[in-house]
Each structure stands twice: as structure tokens, then as C-alpha cells.
Design a protein that fits this description.
It is a single chain. By secondary structure, the protein is mainly α. It has one helix and no strands.
Length: 135
């Protein structure tokens, strides 16, 4: 009977340990479920952040393309402005040269008109002299 009692107590103690272990396992399982739920929530947040990041990267890539196009246009415009500045400088030089040439030409015409008037006067004088010689 003593032996049956010890076997019974041993089985009761094993049952108590199993119950305590089962309760502990249930608590761990509950904690793990809470952890999994929290991690899934965080994972969803990370997925949303990743989606936003991908959209932002796409927008940045498009902005970089636009920026490169604007840089190329600015470079082209700078070249055009430089060419226009050179052309304007040549035009101003040509205009100054043309004014100088026109002034010199006007002066020459004025002098030639004076000489022509003088020669005309001389021719008329010679013509009168010739007429006077014939008579």
C-alpha cells in the first residue's frame, strides 16, 4: 500500500508539473501570438514605408531627368547668348566702321563737289576765252 501511495504521489506530482508546464506553454504561446501580431503590424508599416520610398525614388528619378534636360537647355542657351553677344559686338564694330566710312565718303563727295564746281568754273572761263579767241 505504501508503494501504491508513492506511485500515486509521483503521478500527481508529474501531473502538477505537466499542468504548470502546460500553463507556462500557454502563456508563452499567447506572448508569441502577441509578438507575431505586433511584428505583422510593423511589417505592414514597413511595407507602406517601402511603397512610399519606391514612389519617392520614382519621382526623384523623374526630377533628375527633368533637371538634366533643364541643364542641357541652360547650356545651349548660354552658348546662344555667347554667340549673340559676339554678333552684337561685330554689328557694333561694323556700324562704327560704316559710320566712319560714310563720314569719309561724305567728306570726299563734298571735296569733289568743290573741285567740280572749281573745274566747272575753269571750264566756263576757258570756254569764254576760246569764244573770245575765235572772234
Amino acid at each position: 500500500a505504501n508503494e501504491d501511495r508513492e506511485i500515486f504521489i509521483d503521478k500527481v506530482n508529474k501531473l502538477k508539473r505537466w499542468i504548470v508546464g502546460y500553463d507556462h506553454s500557454r502563456k508563452e504561446c499567447s506572448e508569441l501570438r502577441e509578438t507575431v501580431a505586433r511584428l505583422e503590424s510593423q511589417n505592414e508599416g514597413y511595407r507602406k514605408s517601402l511603397t512610399i520610398l519606391e514612389e519617392t525614388q520614382t519621382k526623384l528619378s523623374e526630377a533628375n531627368v527633368d533637371l538634366e534636360e533643364h541643364r542641357l537647355m541652360a547650356t545651349e542657351k548660354a552658348g546662344i547668348i555667347e554667340e549673340l553677344t559676339k554678333a552684337e559686338s561685330r554689328c557694333r564694330y561694323s556700324e562704327a566702321t560704316l559710320k566712319s566710312d560714310c563720314h569719309a565718303l561724305s567728306s570726299s563727295v563734298w571735296l569733289l563737289n568743290g573741285e567740280l564746281a572749281d573745274k566747272t568754273s575753269q571750264c566756263q572761263s576757258l570756254s569764254r576765252e576760246l569764244v573770245g579767241c575765235k572772234e
